[in-house]
Write a structure and sequence with these properties.
626 residues; alpha/beta; 23 helices; 17 strands; 15% strand
């Protein structure tokens, strides 16, 4: 009895937090719903107009739209300067509307060039130029709702500040298919198993609060139960089918949907709805098996006995770790120079080793996940671009290590008249040029291209790039060549002097093994810049802190270490049902840890801003005029 009594105050606090979160979510959903424009077709007596020139309508099977609605959508797009419009039926099922509003902020996503594209999965109106640049067929046939959800994510990239959403009264479609729920979550870039587990945990928490703290528990349960009616009932525009029934049955339907989704085979397993082609999957596995046939020792160079930065002898081991990012075979060592503090991978990966461990990370299998993370850093991108404002107005900017050019895309909102070019080793740089995120794409090694680009740029940036390179000094020398006299060099790097890095050890994400080759204390980098004729104009630490989560990332890395994905094509253990079940169990047990980690990261970010001690630092330096 005593233990129950002592748990009641804690349960009341948890229930109160649930009421607060549900209340905030309800208000947010109402606000977002109010921001969705409602198309108003022209009166029937107006003279008929010809089909829509310059536009393409792409729909899911069974979705229809009358001519008046399409003309209203095209008129709305022209008035608002839109090139892509996601059309949302006003009779969309209640939970589908709520799910969309959790992901989509119509106002913010319209102006946020890096925000992911989300939609209802029913119909898209696409302008000719975007349709063509995205490489779509002239007459795109109806595609599944999941394909349409993927397509709106792609099209938002080709129209980053010209994608909009509208409620369409004349749009009709079939009811949602619960059997396709997992597939559609994956199409949105969301993990079905983790979300379903979190949903079940939330329902269990409501029951616990209702039993142990009846007043607060009843308030939380009522708010959850009635949320569809509160958000959608008196709303202008949407008229969800069966709203009263959906509200009354919400907990049961949520339980059923979560269980059904968990029972759906994961992508890539036998019986999965969206499993990739068997031939492609087999080829990928065969390629990894061939690469690993001789073990991983051949991916490493001989261990060096001195520091690559200052040549001091006798570096000491800082940490040893496996590949926590992808779970590929191999072990990696970071060593620290006892004289200058430089941290470096030792033994270092060979070029073939780097190719192996980079494969399927930024492109291929891991491309969607990486793009999702990079697309949520708009604030960081703008802060980097704003750092130049007191010192210069950039005209020609080269972003080195641009990957898919998310920074350049966001920086255009800060410097709209600047020419942004991008350089990277991966093929994604060419896709960035097709999207219009950069003006010119260069693929290759920066030092190899430096003579060709000599003196062309007044600004060069290297954001979380230098630590990936084999020879940081060669990269800095290349920047000297490429910059015009008086040009500016902007560098952002992980801070190896971060105290949290010592606290979390191998689970501190910025160690990023096996990709990071060098981690430089800020003093070392400043000395290297001074030796090349640069003057440091600005230095940021707290402002450069990456708020995407030291503790959240550590939790994810630890979970991946405990239960690696047995279905990964490089996995050396069979993907038995027991191993898949173990991974699902670990993911389920990790859900409350993510919540705690998220709170810690919020506190960590606030402290980093105040104390000027984050997990990264940023330097802006000017090249001499001589």
């Amino acid at each position: 009895m005593t233990r129950v009594h002592r748990s009641e105050p804690r349960t009341r606090w948890v229930a109160a937090a649930a009421v607060t979160a549900l209340g905030a979510g309800t208000v947010r959903a109402r606000r977002r719903l109010a921001a969705l424009p409602v198309l108003e077709p022209a009166p029937a007596q107006d003279p008929p107009r010809p089909p829509l020139p310059g536009w393409h309508l792409i729909t899911a099977p069974g979705v229809t739209a009358d001519g008046a609605t399409l003309r209203a959508a095209a008129d709305h797009a022209v008035r608002e300067g839109l090139r892509v419009v996601d059309l949302i039926p006003v009779r969309l099922e209640a939970e589908s509307v709520l799910g969309l509003l959790r992901l989509l902020d119509p106002t913010a996503h319209r102006t946020d060039r890096c925000a992911p594209g989300h939609g209802a999965g029913h119909a898209l109106l696409v302008a000719d130029d975007v349709h063509r640049r995205a490489g779509l067929d002239a007459a795109t046939p109806p595609c599944s709702a999941a394909d349409l959800l993927r397509l709106v994510r792609t099209l938002k990239e080709y129209a980053p500040d010209a994608t909009g959403w509208a409620l369409a009264p004349g749009l009709t479609g079939p009811p949602p298919d619960p059997a396709r729920h997992a597939e559609e979550l994956r199409a949105r870039g969301l993990p079905p198993a983790l979300l379903s587990t979190a949903q079940l945990a939330g329902l269990a928490l409501l029951v616990k609060c209702l039993v142990s703290a009846p007043r607060w528990g009843a308030a939380a349960t009522a708010l959850y139960w009635l949320q569809p009616a509160v958000v959608l009932g008196p709303a202008r525009g949407p008229r969800p089918a069966g709203l009263a029934r959906a509200t009354a049955l919400r907990p049961l339907r949520a339980l059923s949907t979560a269980l059904r989704t968990l029972a759906t085979p994961a992508a890539g397993t036998p019986g999965a709805v969206d499993a990739p082609g068997a031939a492609g999957e087999a080829a990928r596995r065969a390629a990894y098996a061939t690469a690993l046939a001789g073990g991983t020792d051949r991916f490493f160079e001989p261990r060096r006995t001195d520091c690559p930065w200052c040549s001091a002898p006798g570096p000491e081991v800082r940490l040893r770790t496996p590949d926590l990012l992808q779970g590929k075979p191999g072990r990696f060592t970071l060593e620290e120079c006892r004289q200058c503090g430089h941290i470096f991978q030792n033994p270092r990966l060979t070029p073939d080793g780097l190719d192996f461990y980079y494969r399927d990370f930024y492109e291929g299998l891991g491309g969607d996940g990486t793009a999702l993370v990079l697309g949520r850093m708009s604030g960081t991108y703008r802060a980097r671009a704003e750092l130049l404002r007191p010192f210069t107005t950039p005209r020609a900017w080269l972003d080195v290590g641009t990957a898919a050019a998310h920074f350049c895309n966001a920086a255009r909102s800060v410097w709209p008249d600047t020419r942004f070019d991008g350089l990277d080793m991966g093929d994604g740089v060419h896709k960035a040029a097709r999207r219009g995120w950069i003006d010119t794409a260069y693929q290759g090694q920066f030092p190899d291209l430096a003579d060709r680009l000599a003196g062309r740029y007044d600004t060069v940036s290297m954001h979380h790039y230098l630590e990936h390179t084999r020879d940081p000094f060669a990269e800095l020398d290349a920047a000297v060549k490429v910059l015009a006299p008086g040009g500016h060099l902007l560098i952002e790097l992980p801070d190896p002097e971060s105290r949290v890095g010592r606290l979390l050890g191998r689970y501190w994400l910025p160690w990023f093994q096996p990709q990071h080759q060098h981690l430089m204390p800020v003093g070392n980098l400043k000395q290297a810049l001074a030796a090349r004729g640069f003057t440091v104009l600005a230095e940021q630490h707290g402002e450069a802190h990456q708020s995407n989560g030291d503790f959240l990332a550590a939790t994810a890395l630890a979970a991946n270490r405990l239960a690696p994905d047995p279905q990964a094509p490089w996995s050396t253990v069979p993907a038995t049902p027991a191993r898949r079940a173990a991974r699902s169990a670990v993911q389920a047990m990790t859900v409350p840890c993510y919540a705690a980690a998220l709170a810690l990261d919020g506190l960590r970010t606030a402290v980093a801003r105040v104390t000027d001690g984050g997990n990264a630092y940023r330097l802006l330096a000017r090249k001499g005029l001589g």
